[in-house]
């Protein structure tokens, strides 16, 4: 699993031009899933996100986790995180998992995140047309790939 995590003061997603879901302070997490990913990757990643200390303490140092600051999560599926641009100018998404694998693993990941952030997780909709708006705080943007966790 590959994510791009952004610390935000607020964020929202508009789904298919109809529905808005929003959060306050916390993380926007763009999630890409590949065929090699497993439930263990989802568990590891949810734990990493919950304990990642990138929120400021009273001295301005990044010492607090999203849990410490009662943060919220907005989790968006993003297959394009696995784009390959090695050949030509049109990206290939061959590494991205197909929906029959990606959807259940995405949903499993969301549930693992909800264990750490009860009632504080919003999501996009897998495969929908989404417009994401956010205010990146810092800015703090971190990329994590479970295939490179060791």
Automatic annotation (TrEMBL):
Subcellular location: Cytoplasm
Gene3D superfamilies recorded: D-tyrosyl-tRNA(Tyr) deacylase
Principal subcellular localization: cytoplasm
Annotated keywords: Cytoplasm, Hydrolase, RNA-binding, tRNA-binding
Residue spans crossing the bilayer: none
Protein origin, superkingdom: Bacteria
Pfam family membership, one: Tyr_Deacylase
GO biological process, one term: D-amino acid catabolic process
GO cellular component: cytoplasm
Functional description taken from the UniProt entry: An aminoacyl-tRNA editing enzyme that deacylates mischarged D-aminoacyl-tRNAs. Also deacylates mischarged glycyl-tRNA(Ala), protecting cells against glycine mischarging by AlaRS. Acts via tRNA-based rather than protein-based catalysis; rejects L-amino acids rather than detecting D-amino acids in the active site. By recycling D-aminoacyl-tRNA to D-amino acids and free tRNA molecules, this enzyme counteracts the toxicity associated with the formation of D-aminoacyl-tRNA entities in vivo and helps enforce protein L-homochirality.
HAMAP family (UniProt xref): Deacylase_Dtd
Domain note: A Gly-cisPro motif from one monomer fits into the active site of the other monomer to allow specific chiral rejection of L-amino acids.
NCBIfam families assigned: D-aminoacyl-tRNA deacylase (TIGR00256)
Assembly mode: Homodimer.
Family: Belongs to the DTD family.
Protein name as it appears in the record: D-aminoacyl-tRNA deacylase
């Amino acid at each position: 699993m590959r994510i791009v995590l952004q610390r935000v003061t607020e964020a929202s997603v508009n789904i298919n031009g109809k529905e808005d879901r929003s959060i306050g302070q916390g993380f926007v997490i763009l999630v890409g899933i590949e065929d090699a990913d497993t439930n263990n990757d989802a568990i590891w990643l949810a734990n990493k996100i919950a304990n990642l200390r990138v929120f400021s303490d009273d001295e301005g140092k990044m010492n607090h986790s999203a849990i410490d600051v009662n943060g919220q999560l907005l989790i968006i599926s993003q297959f394009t995180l696995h784009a390959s641009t090695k050949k030509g100018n049109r990206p290939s998404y061959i590494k991205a998992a197909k929906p029959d694998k990606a959807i259940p693993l995405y949903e499993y990941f969301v549930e693992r995140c909800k264990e750490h952030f009860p009632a504080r997780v919003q999501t996009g909709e897998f495969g929908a047309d989404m417009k994401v708006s956010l205010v990146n705080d810092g800015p703090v943007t971190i990329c994590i790939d479970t295939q490179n966790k060791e």
